[in-house]
From TrEMBL:
One of its GO terms (molecular function) is nucleic acid binding. This is VRR-NUC domain-containing protein.
Amino acid sequence: MRIKRIKPAKGPEYKIQQVIIKYLEDRGWKVRVMAASMYIYGFPDLWAGHPKYGERWIEVKNPKSYKFTAAQLEFFPIMIACKCPVYILTAANDENYKRLFGKSNLWIYLGGYSYGK
């Protein structure tokens, strides 16, 4: 069995993630970090739920430099096909926050376009 490499927890994305978590919690969201392990991988970084807006799966990326793992490239499209959209956030600001209320923006970051949910 191949053991999956887990990214370091304190890099640039970690710092962005912490600010995004606070930003969302300040707006009434409950947020949980989805920690990867050798058995659970390919999930977005965050699950967020709001009593009014429902739940969101959020992948945090560093806008200056990002890539997707092989597991993410395999699993994110499956999530979207199952009506579980993945939202890419790169900062804690109003522009990024508005992304959570539209269609999944994953395909933009993969270099394509999505016409689905």
